Task: inverse folding
């Protein structure tokens, strides 16, 4: 039943893509990326949690495993939606508009800011490693996950904001 | 030239004179409507190429469309 519902929602979203304007496609892309960032975070952080608590708490391990699975399903959904979105962009021949200079500026700003956040986190690892309170492998995986989701979130936010005073 | 010199524009004025919506002008120059909106609101400074495209689409000179303030 749940699988049918999920497939129904997916099919509905895919059919709606066909009728979208460039403006709606831009907003839709930003929302897909936000959803993708959330799904990837659930998948990877859930996975990290399962590895961190593997032999300690069975119920917490079960919850983390469910979160990991949900995140993975969400990530696959994101990939399908991005594939359909790209198909629509090519069909409608709106690729230059979807990658105009404002989009490129937002993308480079998102990557630039993410770089400094991650650079700070890597530097933070150096003194924290001295205490040996955690598994360095898990810490690196956490930073690698953040390296994926922070640019996605920042780019989506920049794509969705600063649109006041718009007309028809 | 001082660093506090900004770039002003009369994009909204010329666009409404041509009775274009932001979306219509965006389609003519190959950008998103939001790009037009952010240029009009002075949130985003366009490149020379986009400034020239906008001027051409609105049939005015770049100097008429953009100015230093």
Result:
């Amino acid at each position: 039943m749940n699988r049918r519902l999920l497939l129904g929602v997916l099919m509905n979203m895919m059919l709606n893509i066909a009728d979208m304007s460039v403006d709606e496609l831009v907003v839709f892309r930003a929302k897909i990326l936000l959803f993708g960032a959330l799904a990837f975070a659930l998948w990877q952080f859930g996975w990290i949690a399962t590895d961190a608590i593997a032999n300690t708490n069975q119920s917490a391990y079960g919850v983390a495993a469910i979160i990991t699975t949900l995140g993975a399903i969400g990530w696959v959904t994101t990939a399908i939606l991005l594939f359909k979105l790209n198909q629509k962009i090519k069909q409608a021949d709106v690729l230059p508009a979807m990658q105009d200079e404002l989009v490129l500026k937002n993308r480079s700003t998102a990557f630039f800011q993410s770089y400094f956040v991650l650079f700070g986190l890597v530097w933070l690892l150096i003194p924290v490693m001295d205490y040996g309170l955690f598994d360095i492998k898990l810490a690196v995986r956490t930073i690698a996950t953040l390296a994926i989701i922070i640019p996605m979130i920042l780019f989506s936010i920049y794509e969705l904001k600063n649109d006041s005073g718009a007309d028809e | 030239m001082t660093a506090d010199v900004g770039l002003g524009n009369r994009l909204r004025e010329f666009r409404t004179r041509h009775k274009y919506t932001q979306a219509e002008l965006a389609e003519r120059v190959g950008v998103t409507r939001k790009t037009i909106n952010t240029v009009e609101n002075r949130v985003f400074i366009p490149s020379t190429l986009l400034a020239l495209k906008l001027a051409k689409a609105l049939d005015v000179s770049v100097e008429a469309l953009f100015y230093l303030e």
